[in-house]
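Below is the record:
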Amino acid sequence: MSNSNEKENELKRLEILLEKNMSRIKSKILVLSNKGGVGKSAVAVNIAVCLSMKGKKVGLLDADIHGPSVAKMLGFEGKKLSFDSSGLSPYKVNNNLFAVSIASLLETPDSPVIWRGPLKMGVLKQFLAEVNWGQLDFLVVDLPPGTGDEPLSICQMIKDIKGAIVVTTPQDVALLDSRKCVSFLKQLSIPILGILENMSGFTCPHCNKEIELFKIGGGEKASAELGVPFLGKIPFELNIVSSSDEGTPFIEKYPQSKSAAAIKNICDKL
């Protein structure tokens, strides 16, 4: 009986902390896709960095428990988060950007997370409730691919989500999945900020000719058919790959690039 009471009290405590923490954040934005490999995390990272460069206080939560990549992309892989009596402190990326990832709690980058649903949901709730996010203008949540446990739980835990960005690539297979994402959000009554078409064209560094790696324009067409806004296209650039591997967001390292201009335009809309 006492174990049951302790569990109930802990749940109540977390709910109170969650509500208090989220009330200090003006806008919560989800970044999601129904398919892996569309560059969703790179988009989430660079949107968060861009907003912070505009003087906004931003939090970035890597909600991908099994495949966290935010820490690697922001250069804090292997660096442990600090605990104190008031809870867990997020990693300070710059004066305006703070991030949390399960990668900072693992023994090594190669350590797999072999957890079932309840454990994962508990950690996500702790990230939202017990991390000292402070007063923020934006909390950007990088969700894992799909419409399963983690995305559903986050959508239910955060009561006042400002909206969601659906990331896709132009080819038909990815677009089919992005349509499922839009349906998922509509069923949960979460506002859709728009569809973002990533990897939209590639300019050859030798001849400057544009190559349609994954077609072009599919995201825009899908947004028109589904009746949701179209946020824009981000072209594929080799610098995106190298900067992500180095732990420096491309919008910061290559601010004059076409991809950086596209991200800035999207952030202006946000």
